[in-house]
Amino acid sequence: MTEQLFSIAHYADQAVLWILIGLSVVSLGIILERLFFLNSIHKDSKEVLEKIELALKENRLSEIKELAKNTNSVMGKAATYALIHIEESGEKGLEEIFNTFSITLRPKMEKFLSFLGTIGSNAPYIGLLGTVLGIMKAFHDMTHATSDAGQKVVMAGISLALVATASGLAVAIPSVMFYNYFNKKVQSIFDALNAVRELCLAYAKTIGSKK
User: Kindly report the CA angle at 54 between 53 and 56, in degrees rounded to 5?
Assistant: First the structure.
């Protein structure tokens, strides 16, 4: 049984390195895709917040109509759906419209993020596994080496084994950093969406009071 484990360790440490290389490629792909996708929406959400802030200062609740004209943006779509609902049903059910919109939007905003977080949290353990297997291999090789070469075999084997730990950390650190970064972006987008909702509610109440 022990010999079988050592024979597995002889090849598994290299397999772990290839797994980490694959995870690094996947992680980089996710990071680049989310950067392009979320940055454009986040930029739009910042502009929307600035417009809403200005509308509140000048007491222009009708600014929501200007936001609705940009139907290519997430906030513009939300404002469009809200205005259509206000025209047909008034304030009643408006919050539910926004809640439904948020539920359908969230999977698109958080796409791949859980997998990126999983890579970040588990890559160090995968690297550690590679290191342990490499050390096992080094000490096993020492038993078949001459006394003079034994120390060199162990040191060379351990130095190679530590590459797995370094690789695991190299994959994990950027994955965790960008996972947290993207989550903040997503939260900022939903904050802007909440601001649009509140402005729509205020606008609906104003329209309702005039009827």
Answer: 65
39-51: b (≥16 Cβ within 10 Å) or e: eebbebbeebbeb
How many angstroms separate the CA atoms of 44 and 181, rounded?
17
- What is this structure's pTM? 0.82
| 66 Cβ contact partners less than 8 Å away, ≥ 6 residues apart | 51
The Cα-based distances of 76 to 45, 54, 57, 119, 197 in angstroms read: 10, 17, 21, 34, 11
At 95-115, the pLDDT tens digits run 888 888 899 999 999 999 999
DSSP string covering 15-57, please?
HHHHHHHHHHHHHHHHHHHHHHHHHHHHHHHHHHHHHHHHHHH
Which amino acid makes up residue 49? L
Domains of the chain: total: 1
145 domain residue, yes or no: no
Q: Please state the separation of Cα 32 from the chain's center in Å.
A: 11
For residue 199 the two structure tokens come to: 């402005």
Closest by CA to 27, choosing from 173, 201, 140, is 173
The first and second tokens of residue 83, run together, are 């205005």
Q: Is residue 90 part of a domain?
A: yes
Q: Judge whether 75 and 185 are in contact, CB under 8 Å.
A: no
